[in-house]
Amino acid sequence: MLVPWRFIRTWTCFACGRCCKKYVVPLSNEEAERLMRKYGKFVVEKIGRRYFIRKINGRCIFLKNGLCMIQEDKPKACKLWPFIFLRKPRKSFEAKYAYIEYKNEEFYVYVDTFCQGINQGTTPIDLAVLEAIRIYLGENIRQQYTTSPFSQTRKSSILIPYISKANFRTIVVRELI
Ligand code: SF4
User: Fold this and answer.
1) Of the residues 8, 14, 111, 145, which should be mutated to test ligand 1's pocket, given the most ligand atoms within 8 Å of the CB?
2) Most buried of the four, 13, 47, 49, 77, by CB within 10 Å?
3) What is the value of pTM for the model shown?
4) What pLDDT score does 153 carry?
């Protein structure tokens, strides 16, 4: 269910990983090429003409212990979730609760209540929404309020299966952070 952002007080990602299991993440062509170049072709799946992050056993290939292992390389869809941006309100009575203006542009922002982080933690919702708008518009900023605080402090290695000619194997690709 989507609710207008002004109905919510705080939001913090607790790295439960539920969204990384439930959803299939769409990629732009540029994102797909970038991820394949850096992590191997296997991390991306092509369905029809569209690209998606591969899931293994029902979860994103980049999910490890509830955390995303490619923070700086995350596709836009992952950076923005659970915030949904519309140019018009879904229902007229929701308009004043979903409305926000940034650099003279109007947005109607909703939050997907499937997320466990709603009204949790201490990050005021307006800080998270403002950061999400800047990401949505393509501003080159580092995620601070729209990602899990755990992901910014924890050092971990990333394990990515990739296809060799004959079979899969798992390699340590790189250290993060
Ligand atoms: S965005 Fe929400 S559902 Fe996804 S990992 Fe964070 S708290 Fe869980």
Assistant:
1) 14
2) 13
3) 0.82
4) 53
